[in-house]
Amino acid sequence: MERIVKRLHALSYHMRSYFWLDLKQLNDIYRYKTEEYSHTAVNKFNVMPDSLPEWIFDFMPSRGGYFIGNVSPARMDFRWFCLGNCVAILSSLATPEQSTAIMDLIEARWEELVGEMPLKVCYPAIESHEWKIITGCDPKNTRWSYHNGGSWPGNNLFLVFHLRNKV
């Protein structure tokens, strides 16, 4: 049990520190120096500031934030993933401040995140050349389809109901 608690503490720290994105973190990434390789490095994953997508600055509200989908060397997946962020709130992986920021983001970006059904699975959908590379041209994952920005009403209705009662 002690080892599990230690592991969960380390995981929570890692997620809250390296996967959290808000306006402050976005501005820090924009000013990152690259090719840092010591324990004192600020840019731990050597994320290239040029990898910031154009849409992210308009999408990020001043009072809001979210957990990004993936961090890998030199690149982050800046898309917003509904399920992961909602589960972070429900499981208390997100701090109370982060939970509020996630809900603030949903409220501020309601038009982009809510389709004709409840919340989209991720935002924005990938398309064009990037879609072909990432999905292997899988027709199930065309823009705004099931796995690429579509809606999963069953999951999302359950999550929204529980989130409203928790936050």
UniProtKB/TrEMBL annotation:
The keyword Hydrolase applies. GO terms for biological process: sucrose catabolic process. Keywords: Carbohydrate metabolism, Glycosidase, Hydrolase. Pfam families: Glyco_hydro_100. Belongs to the glycosyl hydrolase 100 family. It catalyses: Hydrolysis of terminal non-reducing beta-D-fructofuranoside residues in beta-D-fructofuranosides. Transmembrane segments: none annotated. It comes from the Eukaryota. GO terms for molecular function: endo-alpha-N-acetylgalactosaminidase activity; sucrose alpha-glucosidase activity. This is beta-fructofuranosidase. Signal peptide: none annotated. Its EC number is 3.2.1.26. The keyword Acetylation does not apply.
